[in-house]
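question for whoever is on the cluster today: can someone run the full assembly for these? three chains, 1092 residues total. i dont have access anymore since they changed the login thing
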Amino acid sequence: MSWEYSPAPESRAGIGLRRSYGLFIAGNFVESSDGEAFTTINPSNEEVLAEVAAAGPHDIDLAVAAARRAYEGVWGTMRPVDRAKYLFRIARLIQEHSSELAVLESLDSGKPIRESRDVDVPLAAAHFFYYAGWADKLAYAGFGPAPRPIGVAGQVIPWSFPLLLAAWKLAPALATGNTCVLKPAETTPLTALRLAEILQQADLPPGVVNIVTGAGATGASLVANPGVDKVAFTGSTEVGKTVQQVTAGTNKRLTLGLGGKAANIVFADAPLSQAIEGIINGIYFNQGEVCCAGSRLLVQESVADAVVDKLKARLATLRLGDPLDKNTDIGAINSAAQLEKIRVLAAEGEAAGARRWSPPCELPARGFWFPPTVFTGVAQTDRIAREEIFGPVLSVLSFRTPQEAVAKANNTVYGLAAGIWTEKGSRILWVASRLRAGVVWANTFNRFDPTSPFGGYRESGFGREGGRHGLAAYLDV
Amino acid sequence: MSERRVPVTKTYRLFVGGAFPRSGSGCSYVVTTPDGKLLAQAAAGSKKDVRDAVVAARAAFPRWSGATAYQRGQILYGVAEMLEDRQAQFVAAVAPSEALDEAAATILVEASIDRLVWYAGWCDKIAQIAGASNPVAGPYFSFSIPEPTGVVGVFAPARSSLLGLVSVLAPVLASGNTAVVIASEARPLAAILLGEVLAISDLPDGAVNLVTGRVAELAWTLAAHRDVDALDLAGVPSELVTELERAAAASVKRVVPAPPEEPDWADPPTLRRMLSFVEIKTVWHPIGV
Amino acid sequence: MARATSTAGPAGTIDAAWVAQLTRSESSLRRFLAGLPGVDQVGAEARAASLATRSIKAASKIWAIKTAISMVDLTTLEGSDTPGKVAALCHKARQPDPDDPGVPSVAAVCVYPDLVATAKHELVGSPVAAASVATAFPSGRASIPVKLADARDAVDHGADEVDMVIDRGAFLAGRFGLVLEEIRSVREICRSVRLKVILETGELVTYDNVRRASWLAMLGGADFIKTSTGKITPSATPPVALVMLEAVRDFAEAVGPEIGVKVAGGIRAAKDAIRYLVLVNEAAGPRWLDPAHFRFGASSLLNDLLMQHRKQLTGAYVGPDDYSIE
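^ ran it for u. tokens below:
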């Protein structure tokens, strides 16, 4: 017998979705100067959600100029305690609008409502709360008695956590006295635009935050614009390298949050049930479309079979389907383009000789879907063990000793995150101290907090977001 | 022509354990403006009330210190929101208490709200300022974290009835401690109003207790109480200071001393008060396979 | 964890050789229990909390409510119990909702041993089992002969099911062999009766202990492992139930039989019962979703289930006086 859960869709009522959106410049929504626009769709059923203006180079100039005026005239000179008040207001408003934001996020990105409701939106509000509190305490932050902002920040974010990453970018920049021009990802502009409406509601002075929607070209324009003093980019390593090249020789300050190929290391004495949950969460949270996803499972050989068996049994209970259904665990892949990338890499994995397994999974007819997938018999040299897939695909490798685990985990150009599963405290500390990764989770995974710095080693980027350390990127120190 | 309406006069009580009990002695005392005009009758707290307040503060400590720093910040910010909403009421209490006009009182009330917001934003940052990872000379992970010390006995400033009060109370709460406050004897009205706001906020019952009354009668009981971990002597009259510091010594309390004269509370605060009410705990663990 | 090299027999038969080998001495038993994987408290609680966010609606909710009703062990364990009280409870157990014969009867009525004969008599002709607590319930603090006599007495007076308590003092003192022996002795007395073994998880405190005690009880021959006596707090909690459900699932894989889980104490709302069913479904599996594999030890829960059932059918909220209190 089995117990089928009835559909439990979250309501779309009252989310305030408009048919079309302009660019948010100098406190108002305006059309793009050349009238260009694009559509954003719901990746779970390919339904068109809205038409969105596409910012061209002239629009970027206008946005940057608005940010500059606001920086010099209002924000850069405002009393810190008053800057704090605006950020506290924004945090509160995000909390008050959390339902709508969560639904909008799931519609636009394909991620399950349970995640947007329980993780993305609350963390976004928390980020604003945390950094609001720093605005008038910078003297204590360890950057000298009177650290100053940099100026105008140009910020580009990806589609994996549209609202949350907008908060990660805006909150520390504004708290420290900078003004911003933010470019959300082409496939997920809606929550950033809803956030713009919230900024209007908070009475944020015009030009302090500007939101310029568009595709890759818009981002390139922004990063290259001479009026931008500081660039913050989160996205793929490939594009991140381009950004670093473009800013070379310009004196622009730069921070990068790029890709990863995190190793989740499971020792024989791991708390087994929780390790399984940690592996699942590590690679299937947000369909694996996470820079810090635990996409490599490094399991100690003596327990490898047992772990893989339990993993497969657990995978079979994951629920894939409508992102707006409150019981959905795995949502839609963000776009057709991303789905194709995942398919290609998964096919490579099979071609290279790894064994591919997915639980039986009914994929909806429309939309972009990929079942949770595990590859065993993976070699360290396989593409699926080295390249970021950014999808729900886990590669399983084994190790014999802690030294070997560390060597394999570090054997990558990336260095964003890692997981360690063992009950032995000293081993956690030994392994953690040797992993070249900016975030190490021990006996847990994918834990985020505004107080906790996040960022990568090597080709996963540089700079930290969150915590006291997250202020550094936006101070002239 | 309408008759002049007879107003409902207010009874001012203590704020203990989230409720508003009468004083154990059943007595009250007269509160006047600085130039002698009758303002109100306030409850004259007794030694027993101080004892009850300490019991309440201790009972509330696990819940307040066990909340996440984020939750504490949210709650304190929420109190600030409520104060903002009730500005007029507080101005009406501060102005006559401190012989100020409405404009001057408004500045003080606004500064009090901003002071509370400042401290609300500290809750989730103290650990990053006062804590550390210690680079010890050996294969050990050594880290130090600030933990709230427990129940703090606070003597609110005598003259600054709201801004001074918030300036000594907020750091206690922001660092995760609970408080027993002896309000300003001559100017207790703002404290009682604050108690009413705290009662409807999300602050756990007993996290803050406000006892009004004769400071000289109550001070030693609080200072000598062995279940109080720390004291802030801000509002203590100078003739009592030595006696209270000696009483504190009997259980090695952490003491923030009385200033020689009441400072200008409008000056930006330092971290001194928050850091006085935390214990630094250092933990070691070997690093090895 | 260690596993016998021989494979388990068909579902329902024990891999007796493996069990005999690891329980042959106090030290081998201790080694086995210590070798079970640990439970990370934060992780276990996070998973239970995550499963509590499942949204069970419409037809799946009605199914859950009715299933939960059929899993209730309707309980009265008070010093002031009388035959009259027990009779009234049995009446309700047989037909919880007189206005709706579609509502199933509960699984059992659970009473003290000196009232089980009354219960048995009142339940004649119905599928509801007469269950008795035993072994110096709730404390378990009595000599072994007294505890065994208590169990024998319940069986002699017609108990279909026996809910025994383990010796928590012996467990916490590390005398696992003694705990196992007692369970086996009661199993012997309860040969033809369903045996539920109460771990009293509130006294065991850690999830590691809950996992170990679960295995001890199952190795001792329990048909059900049960969280609590309901006489202390904390009693049943979702993370404790999660650990126990994982234990029965692992035991079934390693040894063969599908042992049941009973949660007892403090479960008053239909909403909580449904959350437990989600845990059963996703941690142990759908095979555990019947009264032979899962029970609720409760009293006031039944009325809330009935009220929610009525509300699901008619759409209107119901008041407590619409149902008999006993």
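summary bc i know u wont read the tokens: Chain B has one domain: 28-286. The two ends of chain B are 91 Å apart (CA to CA).
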